[in-house]
Amino acid sequence: MKFDEGIIKLSIGNKTKTIKFNDLDKARKDGIHLEIKTENIRNGEIYSIVLKTTKKCYLERIELDFNFRASYFSMFSNGYQSMSESREYLKTERMKKAGLMNRIRGYDSYGDYRFVDYVRKKGCIHSTGYTYLKSFKSTLFAASLNEDKGFTFFYGNISDKKIKVLKDLSGTEVEDSMEVLKIMMSYDVDDSWKYYSKLVKGKNVENRKISMWRSFGRYGHGVDCKEIINNLDSIRENNIAYDIIQIDGGYEANLGDWMESSKGFPQGLKFVADKIKEKGYVPGIWIAPFICSNKSSIYKNHKEWLLKNSQNAEVAAGRDSSLGGKILALDIQNEEFKVYLKEVFDYLKNCGFEFINVDYMHASCMIPGKGKNRGMVLNEAISYIEEISKGTRIMLSGTPLVNAFKKVDYCSVSCLNGYSWENTAEKNSNLKERRSVYNSLVSTLNRYRLNKNMFNSVPGIFTLKNKGSNLNKHEKYSMLFLSYVMGNVIMNSDNIANYNDLEKHTLKSLYPLIDLNVYHMEIIDNVYKIKLMYGEFRYEVYFNSNDAVKTAILRYDCFNRHREDFKKATIIDIKPHETKYFIIGDKEKITNWSHLIVN
C-alpha cells in the first residue's frame, strides 16, 4: 500500500512553509532534506521519514494520504486517552465533538476535542496511535512506531476509501535531524498485531494477574482512615484474597499537597500502610502528580510550577467536583517541580506503599513546551515517573495509551465503571470520557489486544451490591465476568461487610486467579463474541451491549455451565447487557469446574 500524497508544515525564521513530498527540490534550497524510506514486511510496509535541516526550524505537522481498494464497513477508533470511549464505528456513523455544556464545564480538557478535527460526516472516523478497518474479506491495520516523537492520528474516510495519517508536531524545535514519522500498515489485523507487538520497544511485559480493593468506587475522593480500616478488617475476616489494598483520593490535605494529610487521616499514611501490611496485603495508593487545585499549598506558594499557555494563563486539565472543582495542570518541565515530585514519591515509598496508581497523565501534556510537542512532553512525564518510582509497581491512568506501551506494569484501558449502565446526558452531549458501565466495558473489549502484550490491562471497578446502584443482575455479572476475562487487574470497591452469602460466594469464586488467553473477538450487531482458552479448554463468550434482546447461533459442540448439551447449531436469546459463556468440546473430559465464575 503506497501513499499518494504527503506534506510537512514547518516554520523557518518568520516564514511558514508547506512542503509537498512530490516537490522536495524546493525544500533543499531552504536547507530541508527529507529521507523517506519504505520497508516491506509480511502483508504490508513500514514507512519512516527523517527530517534533516541546516537551520533551526519549528514543525507543525506531517500528513500522508493513502487510498485503498477494499470496501471496508467499519473502523476502530482508539480514544485519545485511557478513559476515552474506544470502539468500532460503522461507515454509517458520525463522530461528534463534545457539546457546548462540556466545553463550558471544562470536561473537553479530558479528550482530543480542542486539537483534533471532527469532520462530522458519515464514515469519517479518527483514531489515536493505532487503528484497523474491516471488510467481510480482509482487515487493514495501521499503527505508529514512534509515538514518543509526537501523537499520531489516523483519519479514515470509509465511503471515499481514504485514510490520512497526521503526526501532530506542533511546537517541535529541530536544529539537525529527527525521525518525524514511523508507521506500520499491513493487512490481517491479528497477524499484524503480533508483528507490531514485537516491533514496539520497551521492557518485557510480565504477565501478572492481580486483584485489588480500592476506595474510589464506593467512597470517591472522600475516604478516611476509619473507612479504610473497617473495610480492611472485613476483607481479612472473610478471607478475600486481594493482592492490593489501594487508598484513593481523600488522604491529601488538598489536591496537589500529597505529603500533607487530611483531617480524615490524623495518624498519617504510614499508619494505614502498616495496617494493610499487617493484614497480609500490599499497600497501594492513588496520586495525580500533574494537577492541583486552587486551594492547595502548591497553588498559593508555587505558582511558577503551574502550566501556563502562550498568554501566560493557567491551563485547566478538567473539572471534578470531588476534587474541588477546577483542576489545574502542573509543568513537568519545571525543574523545581520535578524535585518536589521526587520528594513526594520518596515519601510514599517510605510510608510503605509498594503499588502507586498515577492518574491524570493527560494533564502533563495539555500544551507543547520548550521545543517539544505534546507527545514528547507526555513521554518526558512517563519517563520521569518511571525514574522516581523505582522499587514500586506503577499503574497509569488517564494517559494516551500508545506512549505507555511496554513502559509500565499496569495501565487503565477504560473509564471507571459508574453505578448506572449509561450516563445518558453525557452520552447525548458526545463526551467520550463519561463514566458509565457501557463505556467501560466496550472500551475494555475493543482494546483487548493490549493486555499482556503492551502492559497488564486494567478495566473498570466492578460492584456486586445493590445499594447506590441502578444495575440489574445481568449488568453486574457482565461487569465482573468481562473485567476478569479481558484484563489482568480485577478491582472491587464494595464493603464486604454488607455482602450477603451469595455475593460473598460470587466474589470468592474468582480465586485463585487464572490466566485466560483471549485469542479472537468479533462484533455482530453490537453483540460481542469472544473466544478464549484456559489450559486445554476452549470457551465462547457472548455479550449483548444492546438495550434489546439479541440472538446468537451456538456451535454444535457447545455446552453451558449446567452441562446442557447443544447437539446441533442452536439459536439462543441474550438479554440486554447480558453475558453468557459456553464450553467447547467433550464435556466428559472436564471434571473440575472450580475455575468458572459463579453466575
What does this structure look like?
A 9-stranded parallel beta sheet has the order 23-22-21-20-16-15-14-25-24. Strands 3-4-13-10-9-6-7 form a 7-stranded antiparallel beta sheet. The protein contains 13 helices and 33 strands. It is α+β, with helices and mostly antiparallel strands and 599 residues long. The protein is globular and about 75 Å long. A hairpin with a 2-residue loop joins strand 3 and strand 4. The mean pLDDT is 93. Among the domains are: 197 residues, no CATH class; 70 residues, Sandwich (Immunoglobulin-like). 46% of the residues are buried.
- Biggest sheet, strands in spatial order? 23-22-21-20-16-15-14-25-24
Number of β-strand runs: 33
**How much helicity do the residues have?**
10-25%
What ranges have pLDDT less than 50 throughout 5 or more consecutive residues?
A: none
- Shape, principal axes of CA atoms: globular
Strand residues, percent: 25-35%
Distance between the termini: 47 Å
Radius of gyration: 25 Å
Supply the number of helical segments: 13
Structural class: alpha+beta
